[in-house]
Design a protein that fits this description.
By secondary structure, the chain is of the alpha+beta class. Helix content is 37%, strand content 21%. It folds into two domains: 168 residues, Chloramphenicol acetyltransferase-like domain (Chloramphenicol Acetyltransferase, 2-Layer Sandwich), CATH 3.30.559; 263 residues, 2-Layer Sandwich (Chloramphenicol Acetyltransferase). α4 links the parallel β5 and β6. It is an enzyme of class 2 (transferase).
Length: 469
């Protein structure tokens, strides 16, 4: 996905240089509703003691570092051309204190209180007229514990880009930030009326794009379950909680897995660490469904996002995503067979590539004109249930030790948004020898999220026991 700039569109906003939202970014912007905010999040927990910077000092530090990140000054404005389009523009009245706030929590059970509050804060959509992000400094009323909650709109960044933006608050990244960021000069079209040769080339390109869109669209339709859009009984294998009506409420629950255990299973069974984690999610859902008295009559489908960013690809902004669709083998009682099924399923996905299956809907959105994104996003959001039952995403973090104001980062739990018709999103990140699992659920549909988080840890422990013999 390339970044486009246009002086013509900049003039229509009246705010200087503008960067058009790419089609997928625009789709995420229009997918949002009050009950379904489309922001990513992360809850970072920090250590410290009585001598560490206090809450007000942390608030000042966070505000200064966030204000120094250029992308966090951008707001969305409508443009005249293309019709239905929007652009990122630098907010002329930007005030970082509108975005960074402090909340005091009791020291007793601080981590649990911070986790509970994070879920509640994730319910609230970001203000549309401001740069779409927020950060909260959560501090204990005594002692040295603190946390930071980050919310970034999905239109602003995908998971990898969100990490790159959010990492700017840490001591190690902020201290290495260059004085001046490299800028890209706007491209001015040579002519509004291309010559005959260029016109033929453009027409050929458009026909190729149409063919690509039709191919991707057909693949999505084949993989989708259109009958789930009708008021019919749910297909077997989908827990009632995962297909409940949305309430607009959110709850975060967390689990921390030992990365050495994940690699121990991987070395014994083959595949990738991500295969192991997907098998752990399947095992956790199986345990959880069984405890809820929901028979596993079939396998729910997971949407597994795939980044299309290339290593060293530069500062390409916005979303660069596709996804794979994977049946989670919750009906299989043997944990090793479950892992083998996940490994084989992901191998088939990778062999077919990211432009096949329901997961390719992101690629389809990336080919649509602006007016189609604006008109079609609500319909696409309602169709999520026809494509998948649960989102499972991995968010890579820097491998180096990080700190904020000298306070060491202890854990970071990523949070993914819930699509319309979805009740659970699972996000995983690796840091400090642990895999931190953030489970964002509709609070009314999944009131027992703590138990599901416990099942995640138990599912990995089961795999470790089996491979040890």
């Amino acid at each position: 996905m390339t970044t486009e700039t246009s002086t013509e569109n900049a003039e229509s906003t009246g705010t200087g240089a503008a960067e058009l939202l790419a089609p997928l970014d625009l789709a995420f912007w229009h997918l949002e509703s009050t009950e379904h905010p489309m922001h990513l999040g992360a809850l970072a927990l920090f250590g410290g003691d009585e001598d560490s910077p206090d809450g007000e000092e942390l608030l000042d530090l966070l505000a200064a570092r966030a204000a120094a990140i250029p992308r966090l000054r951008l707001a969305v404005r409508n443009v005249w051309l293309p019709f239905g389009g929007s652009a990122w523009v630098t907010a002329q009245d930007f005030d970082v204190r509108r975005h960074v706030r402090r909340i005091l929590l009791p020291a007793d059970g601080f981590a649990a209180e911070a986790t509970l509050l994070a879920g509640e804060l994730m319910e609230r959509p970001l203000a549309r007229g401001l740069p779409p992000w927020e950060m909260y400094v959560l501090t204990a009323d005594r002692g040295g514990e603190c946390a930071v909650l980050v919310k970034l709109h999905h239109a602003l960044a995908d998971g990898m880009r969100a990490v790159a933006i959010g990492a700017g608050i840490f001591d190690q990244i902020a201290g290495a930030r260059p004085v001046r960021a490299r800028t890209t000069r706007p491209k001015v079209p040579a002519s509004r009326f291309p010559g005959p040769g260029r016109a033929v080339g453009l027409a050929r390109d458009r026909l190729g794009e149409v063919g690509q869109v039709l191919g991707i669209g057909a693949s999505v339709v084949r993989a989708g379950r259109l009958h789930t859009l009708l008021p019919l009984p749910l297909p077997g294998g989908v827990p009632d909680a995962l297909a409940a009506q949305s309430s607009g409420t959110r709850r975060l629950t967390t689990a921390a897995l030992d990365l050495d255990d994940v690699h121990r299973v991987r070395r014994a069974c083959g595949g990738t660490a991500n295969d192991v984690l997907l098998a752990v999610v399947a095992g956790a859902l199986r345990r959880w469904m069984g405890e809820r008295g929901e028979p596993a009559g079939g396998d729910p489908r997971a949407l597994v996002p795939v980044s299309r960013r290339r290593p060293g690809g530069g500062a390409t902004t916005g979303n660069r995503l596709s996804a794979y669709l994977l049946s989670l083998p919750v009906t299989e009682p043997d944990p090793l067979v479950r892992l083998a099924a996940v490994r084989d399923g992901m191998a088939r996905n990778k062999a077919a590539g990211p432009s096949r299956g329901a997961g390719a809907v992101a690629l389809l959105a990336d080919q649509l004109p602006a007016f189609a994104s604006k008109l079609g996003a609500p319909l696409a959001g309602s169709a999520a249930r026809a494509l998948f039952d649960v989102l499972v995403t991995s968010v890579p973090l820097p491998r180096t030790a990080l700190s904020l104001g000298g306070r060491p980062l202890r854990a970071v739990y990523p949070m993914a948004p819930l699509a319309r018709g979805q009740s659970l999103a699972v996000a995983l990140s690796t840091y400090g020898g642990k895999v931190h699992v953030g489970l964002v659920a509709d609070a009314k549909a999944v009131p027992d999220g703590d138990r599901l988080a416990g099942c995640v840890a138990e599912a990995l422990a089961e795999l470790v026991r089996v491979v040890r013999g």
